[in-house]
Amino acid sequence: EKGGFDTFMEKEIHDQPQAVGDTLLGRTDAQGRLVLDELRIDEEKLRAVDRITIVACGTAAYAGTVAKYAIEHWTRIPVEVALAHEFRYCDPIVDERTLVVSISQSGETADTAMAVRHARSLGALTVSVCNTHGATIPRESDAVLYTHAGPEIAVASTKAFLAQITACYVLGLYLAQLRGETFADDAKAVMAELHTVPDKIASLLTTMDRVQEIARFMSDTRAVLFLGRHVGFPIAMEGALKLKELAYIHAEGFAAGELKHGPIALIEPGQPVFIVVPGPDTPNELHKKVVSNIQEIRARGARTLVIAQEDDEEVTPFADEVIRVPHTSPLLQPLLTVVPLQVFALHLSTAKGLDVDQPRNLAKSVTVE
Ligand code: M6R
């Protein structure tokens, strides 16, 4: 049942090309237009949406944060990401033109279910992005968009995360298509590119030997930092979460732009730092800015573990290690850059002799508040 792998997590990391591919399946017509009849929500209601709030916890909330960048860019609808357990208590601004999108692998997370109930009581339109058929959250929502990652057994979420980003992108592109006039990119072109991602993940997975080796020699490490910018920021947060829960190592994710506002004080000789570098073609010179962050921390002795696109030569002089990912347009990069971070946490946990699939103190689905 582990498909020849030692752990469910490793198997599920390798299921990711299929998780993304299956989540895209059947959601476009022959012309490449998005068709989401499964939502069964009146198109007029969706067109009227003027605010989106994503509610989720943990890894699902990071998927939502990645999606925020894309959905706002494509639709120009303001998107807020709320941790589900905070949402109910912050007097949220929600009305019948608010689309509340919950993201949950299990569909049973109590905090998320209660956030959805609260949103409905305030009149919001609720859509559940969920991996489990017939679970509580999709049953209690107005509509559901299933992720097709297949059952996820390991406590640490991997393939569900990629499927959640994919499903949220499909939803964002669909909303953009409905609204037409404000659309920044061509939905068909984005969908076509999304369809190329599973093969890229599969090829990336064949190049993870060095990441495994790096992890193997880091079992004494006390703290690891993760930096990212734009969609790489939630990926840095996710990389840190994976390391905390699997290897019990203190790990923090930061937005690279925050460095000089505090976190750079943490840099001392030998401090390992992962940097998720935006592709060289990312707008607003973000690539250049992150490369100069790498320079800054390297000058202070950090050990720089750089995740960069295959065509990115500029990072090489400042990297102790470069982990290459295939080329994609900027918004699709998270579907690739997270993979080495998952593999790193898996192998560091293994190197420490820990239980990868069942980390201490954690449950696969958190059904109490
Ligand atoms: O089942 P859900 O997606 O609602 O679960 C949400 C979080 O509890 C979950 O993602 C958790 O953070 C994972 N253990 C992370 O790997």
Automatic annotation (TrEMBL):
GO function terms (MF aspect): carbohydrate derivative binding; glutamine-fructose-6-phosphate transaminase (isomerizing) activity
Assigned GO CC terms: cytosol
Keyword Cytoplasm: yes
Active site (UniProt): K364 (for fru-6p isomerization activity)
Subunit annotation: Homodimer.
Catalytic activity, as annotated: D-fructose 6-phosphate + L-glutamine = D-glucosamine 6-phosphate + L-glutamate
EC number: 2.6.1.16
First-to-last residue of the parent protein present: 251 to 619 of 619
All residue ranges annotated as the SIS domain in the record: 41-181, 214-359
Listed name of the protein: Glutamine--fructose-6-phosphate aminotransferase [isomerizing]
